Structures are given as structure tokens and as C-alpha cells.
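Work Package 3 (structural annotation) set out to generate three-dimensional models for the target panel prioritized at the project kickoff. During this period the team completed the workflow that converts sequence records into C-alpha cells, so that structures can be stored uniformly alongside our sequence database. As a representative example, we reproduce one entry of 599 residues exactly as it appears in the project archive.
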Amino acid sequence: MSQYEESILDKAIYISRKINSSYELPELLDSIMQTTTEIIKAEAASVLLVDENKKNLTFYSVTGEKKELIKQYSFPSDKGIAGHVFKNKQPVIVNDVSNDTRFYAGIDEHTSFQTKNLIAFPLAVKGDTIGVLEVINAFSPDGFNDYDLKVLSYITDLSSLAIYNRVLYDNVLKNNKITNKRVDELNALYSLLNTFSMSSDQIVLKDVFKKAAILIRDTVLCSRVSIFVKREKSKNVFELMSALGFEEKTLKEGEIVYLEKTRIMKMVDVYKKPIYVLNKKQSNFAIEHIQEKYSTESFISLPIMNNDEVIGFVNVSEKIKEDENEGFDDFDFSLIRSIAVSLGNIYNQYLLNQEKINQSLINNELENAALLQHKMLLQNFSIDKDFDIYGLNLPARNVSGDFFGFQKINQNELAAYIGDVSGKGLPAAFFMATASTSLKEKIRFYHYPKNVLKELNETLFYETQDGMFITIAYFLINKKERTFRYSFAGHNNQLLFKHAENKILTLKTHGKPIGIIPENDMEEAICAYETNDILLLFTDGVTEALVNNMEEEGEELLKQIIIEHHHLSSKELVALIQKTFIQEKKELFDDFTILIIKF
């Protein structure tokens, strides 16, 4: 064996030892390529590997003076001599590339390097071509020969096996790393959700966001995390709920931020999707549009959503790196996005729970208000033994805007009234209480219907809320004269059953509702009554309660009931009207109020 052959054998053994070593693949291939140039006596050598889709060849390992310009350079896998070798799976020797049409000059143009000749050999494992090994510019003036091809064949066999085994090994490590990151992600989410699996009324929002920020920092390994949440009943005002890694003079928890003064968060709010730069390369917006001053180029900003509304932001930056090029990766992004979704769900549940608590407080207040109102409307129906009196008030909501009452003025006179405040619910109930109290005071001083309602209007006109008014029908009954005087302030018709004639009279006078104009002149009328006559006072909620009927038809039905059942007591008549007009479990549209006086 010649000295040259011994040298080649030594270098082959050296390559074998390298392959069986624990070197990382890039370092291993660089060492093999350097040894290859020494064995074949050439200027440079390179390994090109194909991507997963077999669309592009990339220079993975390169030797020679232009290696830094060429490494990681990619070109289509069907171009050049390397592309030809990759496609046909056959080695080639080209000792004059200038006369070979297959030669791709783009790389030389990119590097200002001149390729004179080359030898290329396919890298294959188990029949699958994974790349090409090239040796460029032989030192021999005759170029490359078959002996070089034979030597390169041996090197490519070793290199292919090394690449295949090392890729398998690296994939195992990568998959383990991915698995570990996925476990970290799931543990972080479990920790977040488990912390707040408590009753939602025990949740302290700032604790939620503080916990989330710490989980993000410790799981994705970064230095800075900030979480903002929209302030209630505001459009573009956000509060900093948690800030890690910031000096207080830069960002302080509790700080208020106006969205229009931010850049990235404003963009996130507009597009309702994340803005990120991963590993300094992968981003979803042009870098020049990102103007925030992070100390690293890799960052993530995600929206916290509640249905279709952006209610907050999670911002993460300053990845703690193991190497210079490391930044946030897809799994970091996935974890932060999952936490942002969880925060949105927790915040939504918190708002719903707060709404339930507030509604419960309102319901308690309404129940108390209804109880107080019931006591206000509670009447002594035996106030006068000469009359059979009974009334009923059913609110459409918890409290009523309707009211009725009667008031003994002296031995011979009794005042009776019924009223209806516009609107429903608490505002109407509060105004009703004011009106009812004021009306009793006016009755005590002015007695007569026209005067009472006129004075009441002058008092309440300046106390009514915008758009609110009251309709009232007021009656002053004189037992000695067996008459009653009455005035209406915009109230609906009232009915008088004449027993002797077995007919119904419709009672009505002109007058505008209380509270509409400052001076309200009322009309007053007088009517005689006889024993067994029936005075029926009601609000329009009674006639409107009749299903599928107009108000006029409801009034006709009231007349029919009184005529046909006038022998019943006042209480029995009220119960019959209620049963006739209100179906079981039917929801009332308006307050239902009746007052019946049998003379």
C-alpha cells in the first residue's frame, strides 16, 4: 500500500470515528467536509440537504473561503448540476462547468466565487435521496477522475448514514423537547384553571392576572410579561393588571393606558388577532410596522377576548435565550394564546357572576320596595259600613306604578281615587309613592275633585322626571246627598252600574294628565247614586290584559260582567274580573288595578 493510500485510509478511519462520536450534526459534517477536501485535494466541499417537501436544496455544511456566504443558501431542487444529481440519483463529474448547460451560476453570482469543475454524489439512505455532496475545484490541472469518484462514494455512504442517524437522534431530542414543552403548557393551563375552579364569587381578578403572568414567565422563559384589561363601561381605557420585569417608572400595576396612545395593542384591537415576531424571522406583520421599543426583536402580543370584544391584552417579550438566534417558538405562542383564551373565559364568568350578584341585590331591593308598596296600598276596606269596598293591584313587574285608595274626610264624605303612572318598574313606583302621598295631603285640604287635582298638578309638575306623568280619576262621595263629584286627569273611562235600570253609565271628564303642563284646568261633574249601584274604578292595564282583544272590547266585557253578576260582593266581583281577564301564568304587560264600591 502506497503512502497516499495509507493517508486516505487514515482519513477514512478518522471520518468513521467522527461519525460515531457525540458531535452535533453541523459540526460533524463540517469536519467530514474538511477531511473530504484533504482526501480529494480540492478547494471546497459542501453538503446540500433537501427540505421536507423536496422542493429546495440548502447548503447545510460548507468549507472554503466563501462558506459563510453559501451556508443556508437555498435554491430549487431541480436547478443546477446538484439538482440533476438529486433528481437522477447518479453521481457526475464535470471538469468544465462553463460548457455544461446544467450548471447553475446563481451561487457564483451570489458569492463572487468561480466554480471551474466539480464532482457531485447523491446522499441516499434506504433508497431515499436526502441531498447531494459536492466537491469543487480540484487542485489537479486534469480535474477530477474516477478514482476521486470512488473515494467520494465511500465518503457519501458514511456521510449519508451519519446524517440519517443524527437526524433521527435530533428528532428524538426535538420531540422530547416538544413533549416536555407540551407538558409544561398543560401543567400551566391546569394550574391556572385549578386555581380558579373555586366559586366565581371568590375570584379576585388581580390575583388571576398575576398568577397568569407568573405562569407565562416561568413556562416560556421570558423576562417581561404585561397584562392589560379594559376598564368597565369604557371604550378605549385599559388598566395594567400585572407587570413582570418592568421598572416602576416604566410600567406600574394599576396604571391607566389609553389605547390610542399605544401602537401594538391598538393594532391588536383593530384586527382582533395577535401580533408577533418569533425567532426574529417568523411574524404576521411587516417588521417596519412594529414600532414598540422592545430590547429584543422577538415578542408576542395577544388579545383577551370576550365574545367578539377585545377586553384585554397579554404582552410577552425578552425571551431568555440559550443561543443568539433563539426567540419565542410556536409552542410558546400556543401556550400564551391558550392562557389568553382562559383569561377571557374567566373574566367573562367573573362579569356574569358580578351581574348575578348585582341582580340579586336589585331583586332584594325590589322585594323590599314591593313589600313597602304593598303596605302603602293596603287599605281598610271596612272604612265605611255603608259601602261594600274592595280593591286589587297586580304589578306587571316587582313593583307597581298604579295606585288606588279611599280617604274619609268627614262623617258624610268619602274620597276614592285610582291612578296610573306612566312607565313601569322602580322609576314609576317611586313617582307613584310621591304622587300618592301628595294626593292624600291635597284631599285633606281641598276636598273637591277639581281643586284637588289642580293643586296636585301644580305640586308635581316640577317633581316629575322627563317624560313621566300620572293619570288620575278622583271621586268625592257624599252619603247625605247620595251623590258623588268626580274629575279625571287624563284617565281612562270609569263605569257606574245603575241597578234600578240594569245598565252601565260611562264616566269621563276632560283634563290633561298630572305633570305635563304647569297649569292644568280640570273639569268636574256630579252624579247621583242609589242603593245597590256599583262604581267600578280601573286602570287601562285591566282592559289591556284581555288576550287578543282591543281596549274597547275589554271595557265592554267589564260592563257585561257587572250587569250579569251585580249580585256578587265587591270582593267576588274583583276575583271574577281577575279570572276572566288574566289567564293562568300569563305575564302582565301593564299593572292590573281595580277598585269596586257597592253603594
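Residues 196-353 form a domain with the Beta-Lactamase fold (CATH 3.30.450.40).
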